[in-house]
Amino acid sequence: MSQKALVIDLHKCVGCHACAANCKAWNTQGDAGPLTDTNPYAKDPEGVWFNRVQTYEVGKFPEVEVVHLPKSCMHCKNAPCVEVCPTGASYKRVEDGIVLVNYDDCIGCKYCSWACPYGCREFDEFEGVMKKCTLCVDRIYNEALPEEERKPACVIACPAKARAYGDIDDPSSQASRWIAEGKGYKLMPESGADPSNHYLPKRKVNIHVDKEALLKVAHAHINAARNIACDTGSVSEDVAQP
Amino acid sequence: MYPEMSLVFLTVLAGAGQGMFILLVILDALFLKSGEVTPHFLMAAGIASLIFPLAGMAASFFHLGNPQRGWKAIFKWKQSWLSREVIFLPAFVGFQFLYLLLLYSGAPELYRLFAGFLGIVTAMGLYLSSAMLYAAIRFIKEWATALTPINFVLFGLTSGAAATAAAAHYTMPGMTIGYLLSYLVAFLAAFSLVMKGLAFQFNATVYSGISIKNALGMNNPHIRLMDTGTAYPHFNTKEYFFPLTRRQNGIQQTLVLGISFFLPLLMALYAAWNPALKLGGLFSTAAFLIVTGLILERRLFFIQGNHVQNLYYGNYRQNAVKNPATSKAKQGTPRPK
Question: Is the peptide bond before B275 cis (omega within 30 degrees of 0)?
Answer without folding.
Answer: no
